[in-house]
């Protein structure tokens, strides 16, 4: 079902030749899980850093019968999410949704949905810096050599330094992972809370970095292991609170300041997950609309 | 050394390196045995550093061969190994102590991490064990373990050099290359560092190639000596023999150039 699109633009904004080029990069990326594939990133009608990589990946894989969901920090209603969603409904005329289960393509910034993904779904990440070794080794030639020879010692040295300084691994987001036991990968700035969701996920995960011109991928059911030390194993964040609106004790919570008197509440960062739960009748301690 | 049944560790044959028309080094041949310390002396520009870099696979020679006895598969041409193997060798079985600690240490990470990095690179993934090994090595090079988490930039020159030695020896290499390890340090620190190197090398049975222009270092540290000039070896023999009874005019000049104290 093709909806109304703006006249003068190709389907999903990019021209067919560009989409083909990006698809070739995606195929390579899927064939070598976690390996960064260069591609000819195009100028997009929004600034670098706002998701140009993710948009180009989405534009090249989206079809007329796809249903698109866009989230930004877990929320469906933030500026980035709203504008990218309307971009695709205008240029491709596709159906958009806020529901994780209904979507066939989910473009995301900084989160993986709480609702488990299923086979056939595609998760597209917006990536600011694809190179996991970037702050350890400034030379691109050298980082490529390190990837080629699997020399990932310096990454562990960084974790060592954190334990020596803070008594624990202090990285909380963009936590480095090993994909399929071979390539070190930056999972984009998702909280480490989401790292375990990447492991053996039934959905296809694609990563697009527009400014850095790199695409990489984690195919369905691929092992993704977060780096750690034997005596300092990887662990995820936990909260003393549950979600103030839906009462979930298992989701990733945002802390929201509610007044200037020190008032605050913790709510799910995944708005769709929170709304679904509330629709099912779950209520958190701060939800004023007491159950019906 | 042969009576213990040991075999040569390193065999160098007719090694040469040209930089255009300029001779880097030419016709260098020698054998090195496990636990042996070989000194290389000569004036600036005599090809000492070129030789060291050819031997340690940092640059490829134009002629000749460097054969090293690997732990598992015997004699191997170092320059025929894949880059991955060379880099592995560099991190495990070999050590390189640079003249300038900035070349051998990473100044952005703590002293402990500098030593631990080599352990991590060969697969150590237990924080507590790495920490214990690092502490042990800092003690062995007579460094205060309280400074383990400080950046190398906050250390004195002598301490930086000792840290470099700890970083190299932590993986228990069998061959260590040293490029002017004590130059740039004041005499009392030099003496302590030399003493430390001599003790470690003899207790750990490490073979060493020490490039220096300091005959004092040579006298204290090395068993055998090569004198280089214009890229060629002009004289080689036991250290005491060469220093006490130099045959080649250049060696004689070198020995007589030591300022009497």
Counted beta strands of chain B: 10
Q: What is the rounded Rg of chain B? A: 18 Å
Low-confidence stretches of chain B: none
Sequence of secondary-structure elements of chain B: EEEHEEHEHHHHEHEHEEHH
What is the strand content of chain A? 15-25%
Q: Mind describing the biggest β-sheet of chain B?
A: 6 strands, mixed
Strand order of the largest sheet of chain A: 1-9-8-5-4-2-3
Structural class of chain A: alpha/beta
Q: Number of DSSP strands of chain A?
A: 12
How is the biggest beta sheet of chain A arranged?
7 strands, mixed
Strand arrangement within the widest β-sheet of chain B reads 6-7-8-3-9-10
Overall average residue pLDDT of chain B: 91
Q: Give the strand content of chain B.
A: 15-25%
Regions of chain A with pLDDT < 50 over 5+ consecutive residues? none
Number of helices of chain B: 10
Provide the gyration radius of chain A in Å.
Answer: 20 Å
Distance between the termini of chain B: 36 Å
Strand-pairing-aware structural class of chain B? alpha/beta
Report helical residue fraction of chain B. Answer: 25-40%
């Amino acid at each position: 079902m093709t909806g109304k699109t703006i006249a003068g633009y190709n389907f999903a904004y990019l021209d067919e030749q560009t989409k083909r080029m990006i698809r070739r990069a995606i195929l390579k990326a899927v064939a070598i899980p976690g390996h960064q594939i260069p591609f000819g990133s195009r100028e997009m009608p929004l600034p670098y850093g706002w998701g140009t990589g993710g948009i180009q990946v989405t534009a090249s894989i989206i079809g007329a019968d796809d249903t698109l969901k866009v989230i930004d920090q877990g929320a469906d209603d933030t500026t980035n999410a709203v504008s990218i969603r309307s971009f695709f409904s205008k240029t491709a005329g596709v159906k958009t949704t806020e529901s994780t289960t209904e979507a066939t393509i989910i473009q995301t910034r900084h989160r993986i949905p709480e609702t488990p993904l299923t086979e056939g779904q595609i998760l597209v990440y917006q990536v600011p810096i694809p190179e996991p070794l970037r702050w350890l080794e400034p030379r691109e030639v050298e980082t490529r050599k390190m990837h080629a020879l699997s020399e990932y010692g310096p990454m562990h040295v960084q974790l060592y330094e954190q334990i020596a300084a803070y008594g624990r691994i202090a990285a909380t987001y963009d936590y480095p992972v090993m994909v399929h036991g071979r390539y070190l990968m930056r999972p984009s700035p998702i909280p480490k809370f989401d790292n375990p969701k990447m492991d053996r996920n039934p959905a296809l995960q694609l990563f697009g970095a527009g400014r850095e011109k790199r695409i990489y991928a984690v195919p369905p059911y691929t092992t993704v292991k977060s780096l750690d030390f034997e005596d300092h194993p990887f662990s995820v964040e936990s909260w003393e609170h549950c979600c103030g609106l839906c009462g979930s004790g298992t989701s990733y919570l945002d802390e929201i300041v509610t007044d200037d008197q020190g008032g605050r509440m913790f709510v799910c960062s995944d708005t769709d997950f929170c709304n679904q739960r509330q629709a099912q009748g779950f209520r958190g301690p701060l939800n004023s609309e007491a159950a019906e | 050394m042969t009576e213990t049944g040991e075999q040569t560790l390193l065999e160098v044959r007719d090694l040469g390196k040209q930089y255009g028309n300029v001779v880097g080094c030419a016709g260098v041949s020698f054998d090195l045995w496990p636990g042996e310390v070989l000194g290389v002396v000569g004036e600036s520009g005599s090809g000492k550093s070129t030789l060291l870099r050819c031997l340690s696979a940092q640059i490829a020679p134009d002629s000749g061969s460097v054969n090293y006895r690997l732990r598992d598969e015997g004699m191997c041409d170092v320059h025929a190994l894949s880059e991955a193997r060379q880099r592995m060798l560099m991190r495990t079985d070999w050590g390189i102590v640079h003249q300038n600690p900035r070349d051998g240490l990473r100044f952005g990470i703590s002293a402990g991490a500098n030593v631990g990095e080599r352990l991590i690179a060969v697969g150590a993934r237990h924080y507590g064990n790495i920490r214990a090994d690092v502490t042990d090595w800092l003690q062995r090079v007579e460094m205060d373990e309280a400074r383990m988490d400080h950046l190398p930039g906050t250390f004195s020159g002598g301490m930086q050099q000792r840290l470099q030695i700890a970083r190299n020896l932590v993986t228990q290499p069998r061959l260590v290359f040293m490029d002017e390890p004590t130059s740039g340090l004041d005499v009392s620190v030099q003496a302590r560092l030399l003493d430390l190197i001599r003790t470690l090398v003899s207790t750990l049975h490490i073979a060493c190639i020490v490039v220096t222009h300091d005959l004092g270092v040579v006298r204290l540290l090395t068993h055998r000596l090569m004198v280089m000039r214009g890229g060629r070896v002009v004289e080689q023999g036991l250290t005491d023999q060469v220093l006490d009874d130099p045959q080649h005019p250049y060696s004689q000049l070198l020995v007589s150039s030591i300022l009497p104290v």
